[in-house]
Amino acid sequence: MSVITLTTDFGTRDWFSGTMKGVIWRIQPRARIADITHEIPPGRISTGAFVLSAACPFFPPHTVHVAIVDPGVGSSRRAIAVETERFFFVGPDNGVLAKALARETIRQIRRLENPRYFLEPLSATFHGRDVFAPVAAHLCRGIALNRFGPPQDDYVRLESPSPIPRLGGMTGEVIYLDRFGNAVTNLPAIAQAALASGCLTLAGRASPLPLVSCYQMIPKGQAAGLCGSHGYMEIALFGGSAAQRLGLRIGSRVTLSLIPPRRIPRRSPKRGP
Amino acid sequence: MSVITLTTDFGTRDWFSGTMKGVIWRIQPRARIADITHEIPPGRISTGAFVLSAACPFFPPHTVHVAIVDPGVGSSRRAIAVETERFFFVGPDNGVLAKALARETIRQIRRLENPRYFLEPLSATFHGRDVFAPVAAHLCRGIALNRFGPPQDDYVRLESPSPIPRLGGMTGEVIYLDRFGNAVTNLPAIAQAALASGCLTLAGRASPLPLVSCYQMIPKGQAAGLCGSHGYMEIALFGGSAAQRLGLRIGSRVTLSLIPPRRIPRRSPKRGP
Amino acid sequence: MSVITLTTDFGTRDWFSGTMKGVIWRIQPRARIADITHEIPPGRISTGAFVLSAACPFFPPHTVHVAIVDPGVGSSRRAIAVETERFFFVGPDNGVLAKALARETIRQIRRLENPRYFLEPLSATFHGRDVFAPVAAHLCRGIALNRFGPPQDDYVRLESPSPIPRLGGMTGEVIYLDRFGNAVTNLPAIAQAALASGCLTLAGRASPLPLVSCYQMIPKGQAAGLCGSHGYMEIALFGGSAAQRLGLRIGSRVTLSLIPPRRIPRRSPKRGP
Predict the structure, then answer these.
(1) Interatomic CA distance for residues A218 and C73, integer angstroms
(2) Which of B49, C15, C20, C213 is surrounded by the fewest CB atoms within 10 Å?
(3) ipTM (interface predicted TM)
(4) Does A18 contact B12 at a Cβ distance shorter than 8 Å?
(5) What are the mean pLDDT values of chain C's consecutive 10-residue runs (273 residues total)?
(6) Residue C227 and residue B129: Cβ atoms within 8 Å?
(7) The whole model's pTM is what?
(8) For residue C220, what are the contacts with CB-CB under 8 A and spacing of at least 6?
(9) Contacts of C192 in chain B (CB under 8 A)
């Protein structure tokens, strides 16, 4: 039980994330700390939630995952720590932990209210340093979760769009744009065997995108859909940014169609009425 | 005694900071290394000095803090290591360590002149790798400071502006702009109890900014002053960049006024003559 | 044998590099992980190769160096692990390891084909997480290289320009631009003693650049050549970006001339016909 991960919107040009490591090592010198990212766009809770959920399953059992996208720091929003069957999660109770927690079996949720585990004096503006880092370090030392504050039944969910089933498929939307310009949707990845019989249609574009198994299978300069490593369908463009080329944004609508193989129209997709 | 921190202007896109870790681990495999930041603007010594001073107090005793913003690498500027009651500091003697050292009780200062603790061959352009990293690692191993070179009485101070006292307050200036666009001043943070009776006035702006206790207390889209987690007054804008909105730069003048509570003009701040 | 380095084009704003650390620590909890950089421009194999080669010699013996710039992920390109006298190297066999390997004494090369050392299920798009990270961690644990797959005789070389000898010097080109705007060439660094008698000439510019021993020796605002810490001649501008000022790009041609000292034209360099 000695790994702590950090997912924040603190950036890397100031002293914020580095200082958290000092606080952690003062309390638990043996903690190994992995930066997931500190470049969540400031205050964008849903982006932090997605990144955390994509990274956290790959860490060792008992890892303490800290996620801080916290526009409400110092206000009445609650801070929580959650114990699940596999991990601990620490952060503001504002939805940033929600997407990761949705896949976990939760054992208990505690509000962080015991100042014994906070830094003294407690600032009103940097709970990453003064609350979340020390709590994570104490958890990593083996302090029982019930010591940190009173129990809480549930956690704040994220308002996130669910795909809508349709005849022969479903409609969802883009929920994340990565560094490469790949557009991740909320459509669950389909089986490799079904790729050949499916396609993705973007709102406002008549010609559907084919589905392929890897980036290399996309004809150079063209776009396609594929099953991302995060478990969702994504749209990629080989050798460039799909988001930029296709004008995709968070919220852009995408429809997945699964057509029985013999009915795929070949080489003459309908292009409008 | 096993933590080393790095504060540099080396950036993260080249091999500079990563290579320092290799050098450190070759000498002291057990060192834990925390990047404070590598994104100090190239050559901006005062920014490096501020970031180091904001981060260093939060690290474990005996941490070796390395700060390298070193436009004079290879010239006659001296390289030093400093032992204080709590920490070690290693870097060029050009002011980058000054703001942190000003708050420490200094035990001894040594010039780094013993080539036994340098990398061989010594390059003229990358002392981060060839001098500062190996010295930090040897300090972390427990080598006594007096082995590294001759003693030195003092260190190079940073020319930094001090706030000027005024009737009922003081005038200072912006010394740092963080990722969120918060503008940190050199005005020392005041007691929480005094917030309600104070305000900040920016040069060239008639209406003063109220003081609040946390970001969440700032009305959306408006700016305010608050006590930053670094111990100074800062100017923030909830949901945006105060620096951008208010045109704040390093050196922008800011006046803190502390008015006895009953004399605060309410809802009708003077707006010019 | 417990250090792993990462050189990738994954960036730091998504979950890619952080997730690799989780995978590594699940397999080898004692690995120390150094990020060389994750900011290789997407798909730019030659840049990744240069950065790896500049950083890797400075790490402890038996370090496992992982380099992933892998536009062909999921295609038929091979993945390899290489044991040299000093280190291990892991990555796609597309040239990204070539520049580092060219300076090593190679013991054996193995194709990564044994799925026992991969993550299950294996994605088609993120071999950094599913193949390279677990293989590096298993190597770090001491698993013998021959367990990972069949031997291979050679590795894919990088098509990289070699300097062309000329009367009294050689002509090469810019191969790397660093954060500071320094332009690294493929011309090998010359002895310090020869600096005074040499100069660099850029294609299309009549006046040659003098050679100096360190950045500080460059007159403010002017450019010069010097021996970089990576072992090549580089072009720098004190207090600014040489690349920007001189319009240098990857591939810009640069000629190194070594003139016997008494024949250096002083103060009146030829400026065109």
Answers:
(1) 12
(2) C213
(3) 0.92
(4) no
(5) 92 97 97 98 95 97 97 84 98 97 97 96 91 98 97 93 91 95 95 89 90 87 92 91 95 89 47 43
(6) no
(7) 0.93
(8) C238, C239
(9) 124
